[in-house]
Amino acid sequence: QNPIEQEGTYPLPEAQLDRFMLELPIGYPSKTEEEEVAMRTTGEEDPQVHPIVAAEELIELQHLVRRVPASPSLVSFAVHLARATRPDWEETAQVADKYVSWGAGPRASQYLVLGAKARAALRGDPIPSYDDVRAVAPAVLAHRIVLNFEAEADGRVTRDVIAELLQESAGWT
């Protein structure tokens, strides 16, 4: 978030973060990549941008993902996974009860299913699997979970908690 009237950037509130499907960690480029960036962006030439997909194709790909069928059991698993992040609920995972102060909302369930469908489609599989849900879970859940003081005191980060949650989820299917 970067309000015009203020200098600097500020973290987005949870309600705004929840609207993003994924949080993907992006590290620093390699030395060679960084040199390439510096070379391309500091000269006189304007960088050439070439589209890799037309807007219409992108929209069609989005529709394609939504047409991928998901079984009721897969949807149920995704919902269970999202609900397991919420402390003090019937379905709460042990790790969430210990380390989470605020869990993922209903959008997480939707994005776990859509992410699994997209992953299956990219691999050429006709239907998503539980492993597809588990594979997208860290990116879907990372920005939707708020850890408590105990997690901080124990040196835990959100992706550690998600990894434990995924281990616990192995017995759910």
Short description:
This protein has a domain at 70-173: Helicase, Ruva Protein, domain 3. 54% of the residues lie in helices and 3% in strands.
Characteristic terms for this protein:
single chain; 173 residues; mainly alpha; Helicase, Ruva Protein, domain 3; two-stranded antiparallel ribbon; 54% helix
Main sheet attributes: strand count, strand direction, barrel closure: 2 strands, antiparallel
SSE pattern: HHHHHEHHEHH
Determine Rg (CA atoms, Å).
19 Å
The CATH homologous superfamily of the domain at 70-173 is called Magnesium chelatase subunit I, C-Terminal domain
Count of alpha and pi helical runs: 9
N-C termini distance: 39 Å
CATH topology of the domain at 70-173: Helicase, Ruva Protein, domain 3
What level of helicity do the residues show? 40-55%
- The assigned CATH architecture of the domain at 70-173 is Orthogonal Bundle
What is the CATH class of the domain at 70-173?
A: Mainly Alpha
Strand content is under 5%
Strand order of the largest sheet: 1-2
Structural class: mainly alpha
Low-confidence stretches: none
Apparent shape: globular
Number of strands: 2
Give the averaged pLDDT, no decimals.
Answer: 91
